[in-house]
Amino acid sequence: MNVLVRNAIAIVSPSGSADAPSSSSPSHPPRDLRVTNGVISQLGRDLQPAPGESVIDATDCVIYPGLVNTHHHLAQSILKAIPAGLDKPLGDWLAAVPYRYWPAIDPDIMYSAAIVGLSEQLRSGATTCCDHHYLYHGGGGQAVEEALWQAAEDLGIRLVLCRGGATTSGSHRGMRGNAVQPETLAQFVDGLERTRRRYHQGEDNAMRRLVVAPTSLIHSTTREDLQALAGYARQHALRLHSHLLEVPFDEQQARERENLSAVDYAASCDWLGSDVWFAHLVHANNEAIGRLAATGTGIAHCPTSNCRLGSGIAPVLEMAAAGMPVSLGVDGSASSENASMVQELNLAWLLHRAQGGAAATSADTLLRWASVDAARMVGLPALGEIRVGAPADIVLYALDQPRYWGLHTPEWAPILCGEPVQVRAALVNGRSVVSNGEVTGIDLPQMRARVAEASRRLLERAG
Ligand SMILES: [Zn+2]
């Protein structure tokens, strides 16, 4: 865990944080970084290795804080580009792909999917992954969840398990159409409690976190159950997460059923606050944004998935201007085949310029959303910055390929140039999770065969 990283082109941390390039002496910015017992202990130039330290050569690399992905569905990592859902909007796609296949996902298939998805996270520079995992049904799903924790353990990545699920199939076509039985509220809470006791860590730099996250705020459960789940979360200082306003159907349902806007309904269920973040919010209007901002409620912005499903473009510039916390998520790979945080950074950087002009987004803002702001949103405020005293979650992006030759702002290359990035090395708590461009926790040929077998079984079981 004692490491010296030397000779980087630049060490980049979001502006405003200690030791960020903008706050360092411009003529002598740090190029070396020392890690002691998993913590960044020194930033400087020409640092010399101490006895017992291993050395990582960062020549031709820029160093970023490990990125924090605030919304994923790892189970979908073996459901990419299923033909039946390729050109479908959200509702039809949910029924044709995730809900069509998930009853067939056993622990071994889940483990394979999680290894694929988490490897992609590490390979793109994410060191913390929030997985919105919802494969629970009346009386089942715990063994599948265990496989997810095991995969994260084997790869050394931080995992925030957003424990999804439903207590009613109500307006959810995907559940009803595929005969997925909801849990009772008691089963849902029992599952949360089991996981909280076994895995949840409360520290600012936890490796394992639990979040209370019924799958859809509008379609998965009732007002009373949402209030009970919010009460459970706050009793145990757990964060809250769900899907909201990805499509206009959420607003329609809230108005028809509750005679409230979707965001007012969330408020009436105790589901707004600085401990809550929602995925998507594509169809949040100004009134909704004002209410979300006033309560400190955050967004996991998932631009690739929103494009892929034709859902629209979330108004994140308006949200940020109103003071809402913004973060980025890759969403599941069944609706975002890339599953790369760099893809999300690059696409968000471009997309909002297309709407708002060339000064609408900056690389620095994007990095902030994907690192320190995301870390605070999910309750891990020690993460997301490169500063002395912070946990050593760092990523080395190599810029030695021809695609970077001729580039004049290498510090922003991963965001401006997008995929494919080359992560030469990555550390989580100072522990190596990517080395010489390879994810260290897996045997690639063996894993490839296992994933192929899992995919074959999945198709066979789903008929
Ligand atoms: Zn999602």
Automatic annotation (TrEMBL):
Q: Does the keyword Protease apply?
A: no
Q: Which UniProt keywords apply?
A: Hydrolase
Q: Name one GO molecular function term.
A: hydrolase activity, acting on carbon-nitrogen (but not peptide) bonds
Q: Domain Amidohydrolase-related spans what residues? A: 62-417
Q: Where is this region: Disordered?
A: 14-33
Q: Where is the composition biased (Low complexity)?
A: 14-26
One Pfam family linked to the record: Amidohydro_1
Q: Which family does it belong to?
A: Belongs to the metallo-dependent hydrolases superfamily. ATZ/TRZ family.
Q: What is the protein name stated in its UniProt record?
A: Amidohydrolase family protein
